[in-house]
Task: inverse folding
């Protein structure tokens, strides 16, 4: 227990732990001290001078953001001197500020506006001509308007400390100071847009959002990002049924305010012009638009007929669809069609890990554990590219708790910059780390797709031999890979076998693109595909049913660390239906009675019925999609932003990944 | 980028002088010495200092942009720095600067065509007791008058011939 310090702020007795900053102590006492540059979680800057307060017996005003509390301190935040200081600071900040609030993206949610409204004066004594520089574009997603900038360094620090990129700096000095990108006239970075979100004013603006709307005209829909497996909450700004922005400024969700380029910008696939908005059916060799009624009737008739004559179904499920959809699909295949050949692309050995842990549920790490556990071991993954939130959490852990990071990867990764040990190699290279790891109070091990099957058991045995609490994360790739593995029950043909089988009568694919790199063995099968776009797999279909994306539906998804989170529907894309609704309508058409197809009802049923161990997948079928920050499976092709940034398709272990879009 | 041997030795010593992990402290002195050797701060120098001190090139650029004694274009062989801060201003520093500008035919932070001289107005150089003062490269000249400035420039020009 740290010692408590007694102090007095504005006549209120306050008792806080030693070492706490005055600005935080005031916040605890319910007293607001205005601030721009002070930002929880980032290093101190003391640049904006908005937080000046009066401390008795101190010779002059002091910054509350860098002054630790002391016993007996008497502080005034509401004295006339402080009020004058705030007014003066704001007058300075506005000296060259263009006050173009009517056309500024930030207008309405601008910290400078709020501060001036609350603490400023209505007039300025400056009569000089304002210093102006033109706006600059640094990348497809980042614009910088210098005159609006108040030089708080938030963007510089979040890029350097939060992201570990350090792509922004401040050049020149005094009135001509400005933020500068790392490549002189443009940025080469993660393109995550954290700098834009953290900007208290409208100096950094987003290529996707700028001049689209006023903030108060949007509806804010908090849902889960549909790209990678990390499960970041992203708050969609929806206007007139279209997404215009994604961010997470309220820090809700497991990611706080973190989002990568995909979470913040790659929602644009929703409105892509190639999005399927009508069912397609093969007529005379060509796919033609048909009505939902005709498409569903055709599929139901075919399914019923094949089921009737004891034909063979092969079903590929999705890593993007919700838990409820995955569950319902399994039930459909098992109970509705009497089949058992259902599987999905497996990107990490989740089932192998759960099997190796033999019921030790407390040995599965959460995203939160990555921030609080003293030691982290990364095996076979370029986290900054493949698992950006996990990478961000580990960096924060290192900054705030001086966590020890151990890296075992085949090539260089960002974690090398702050690891205590970085070893090049695979699982065989962890042996020499054992002594160091034994001295740690706790450990989280993250492992990629190179550790599977027996190797997972070896890894868990290694963890057990350390004699310290060890938790694990089996890294998987897509937004609901973990959930897909969790509901997987069938004991029939596996993924590759379904694709290779030559005797399927029906090949049904839901939200996946297996034919992108695999030929279909059953040339004569009736192919049904539920998809958002005409992918390689959809092109091969006899019936294509246009599906909603995760941003247009409700339900739950499970992230890489097994955390189950709810989706909330934002926009609505005309002509599409959620996969769950499609299943429901097909089974209804077939006259089956598989239960209500509303997400909440299905979730209730899952809670009651889902039990037992997961079937372990064959190790050879497990392979990562090797998506980077700038690719997202087949979905990434349909995000213009991901294809526009020059960093794409990105590097893993410092090496280019093959192909622009996977 | 390789510097003359004595400078390399100086940089080696400099990097070891700071505690482990604080090598970025060497950015300013390294830039100063290297600028004297090269004549200006080039983009290559920025890259090199960044590499040696373990910071990004942008972080070195921040420093170069901030400090006026670091310059990205070549100055003259003799960089005349005239103080116009309070003490010097009261005792004729501004007139001295105006005289130097007229005599050399160049403005503030400019160099003569022959590369002999450059001129800069500077803030306090710590020679208030002998104001007005100026510095020629690293050499101080005290209680300077326009006449004494002319003599200085004459002698420097003569030396160059």
Result:
């Amino acid at each position: 227990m740290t010692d408590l310090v007694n102090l007095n702020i504005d006549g209120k007795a306050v008792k806080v732990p030693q070492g706490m900053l005055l600005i935080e102590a005031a916040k605890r006492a319910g007293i607001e001290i205005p601030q721009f540059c002070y930002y929880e979680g980032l290093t101190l800057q003391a640049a904006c001078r908005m937080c000046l307060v009066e401390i008795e017996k101190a010779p002059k005003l002091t910054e509350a953001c860098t002054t630790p509390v002391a016993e007996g301190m008497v502080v005034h935040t509401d004295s006339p001197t402080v009020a004058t200081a705030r007014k003066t600071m704001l007058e300075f900040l506005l000296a060259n500020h263009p006050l173009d609030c009517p056309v500024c993206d930030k207008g309405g949610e601008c910290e400078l506006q709020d501060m001036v409204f609350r603490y400023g004066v209505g007039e300025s004594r400056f009569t000089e001509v304002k210093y102006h520089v033109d706006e600059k574009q640094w990348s497809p997603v980042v614009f910088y308007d210098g005159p609006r900038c108040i030089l708080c360094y938030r963007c510089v620090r979040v890029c350097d400390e939060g992201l570990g990129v350090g792509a922004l700096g401040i050049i020149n000095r005094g009135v001509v100071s400005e933020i500068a990108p790392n490549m002189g006239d443009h940025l080469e970075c993660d393109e995550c847009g954290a700098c834009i979100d953290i900007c208290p004013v409208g100096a950094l603006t987003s290529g996707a959002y700028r001049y689209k709307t006023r903030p108060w005209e949007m509806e804010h829909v908090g849902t889960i990002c549909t790209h990678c497996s990390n499960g970041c909450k992203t708050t969609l700004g929806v206007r007139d049924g279209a997404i215009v922005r994604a961010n997470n400024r309220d820090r809700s969700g497991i990611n706080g305010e973190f989002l990568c380029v995909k979470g913040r910008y790659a929602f644009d696939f929703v409105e892509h012009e190639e999005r399927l908005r009508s069912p397609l059916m093969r007529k005379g060799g060509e796919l033609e638009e048909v009505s939902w009624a005709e498409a569903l009737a055709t599929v139901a008739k075919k399914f019923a007929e094949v089921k009737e004559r004891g034909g063979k179904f092969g079903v590929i499920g999705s890593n993007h669809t919700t838990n409820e959809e995955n569950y319902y699909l399994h039930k459909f295949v098992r109970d509705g069609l009497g089949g058992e050949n259902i599987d999905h692309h497996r990107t990490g050995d989740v089932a192998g890990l759960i099997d190796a842990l033999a019921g030790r549920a407390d040995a599965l790490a959460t995203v939160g554990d990555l921030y609080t556990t003293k030691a982290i071991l990364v095996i076979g993954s370029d986290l900054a590219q493949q698992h950006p939130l996990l990478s961000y959490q580990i960096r924060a852990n290192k900054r705030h708790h001086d966590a020890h990071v151990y890296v075992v990867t085949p090539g260089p990764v960002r974690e090398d910059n702050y690891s205590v040990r970085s070893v090049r190699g695979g699982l065989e290279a962890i042996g020499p780390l054992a002594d160091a790891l034994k001295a740690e109070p706790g450990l989280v091990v993250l492992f990629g797709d190179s550790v599977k099957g027996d190797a997972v058991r070896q890894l868990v045995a290694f963890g057990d031999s350390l004699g310290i609490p060890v938790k694990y994360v089996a890294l998987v790739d897509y937004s609901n890979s973990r959930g897909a593995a969790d509901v997987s029950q069938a004991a029939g043909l596996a993924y590759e076998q379904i694709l290779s089988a030559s005797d399927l009568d029906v090949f049904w694919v839901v939200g996946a693109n297996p034919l992108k790199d695999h030929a279909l063995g059953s040339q004569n099968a009736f192919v049904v595909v539920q998809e958002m776009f005409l992918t390689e797999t959809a092109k091969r279909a006899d019936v294509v049913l246009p599906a909603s994306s995760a941003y247009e539906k409700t339900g739950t998804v499970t992230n890489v660390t097994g955390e189950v989170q709810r989706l909330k529907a934002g926009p609505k894309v005309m002509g599409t239906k959620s996969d769950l609704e499609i299943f429901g309508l097909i089974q209804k058409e077939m006259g089956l009675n598989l239960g209500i197809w509303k997400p909440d009802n299905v979730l209730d049923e899952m809670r009651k019925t889902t039990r037992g161990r997961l079937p372990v997948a064959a190790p050879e079928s497990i392979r990562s999609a090797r998506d980077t920050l700038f690719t997202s499976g087949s979905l990434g092709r349909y995000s213009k932003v991901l294809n526009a940034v020059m960093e794409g398709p990105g590097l893993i272990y410092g090496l280019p990944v093959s192909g622009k879009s996977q | 980028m390789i510097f003359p041997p004595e400078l390399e030795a100086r940089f080696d010593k400099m990097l070891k002088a700071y505690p482990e992990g604080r090598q970025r402290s060497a950015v300013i002195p390294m830039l100063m010495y290297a600028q004297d050797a090269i004549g200006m701060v080039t983009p290559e120098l920025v890259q090199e200092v960044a590499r040696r001190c373990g910071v990004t090139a942008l972080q070195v650029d921040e420093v170069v942009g901030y400090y006026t004694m670091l310059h990205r274009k070549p100055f003259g062989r003799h960089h005349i720095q005239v103080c116009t801060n309070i003490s010097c201003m009261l005792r004729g520093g501004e007139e001295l600067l105006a005289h130097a500008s007229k005599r050399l035919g160049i403005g503030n932070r400019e160099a003569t065509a022959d590369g002999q001289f450059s001129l800069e107005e500077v803030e306090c150089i710590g020679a208030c007791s002998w104001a007005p003062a100026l510095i020629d490269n690293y050499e101080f000249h005290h209680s300077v008058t326009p006449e004494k400035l002319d003599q200085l420039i004459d002698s420097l020009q003569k030396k160059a011939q």
User: Anything to note?
Assistant: The domain at 78-160 of chain B is CATH 3.40.30.10 (Glutaredoxin).
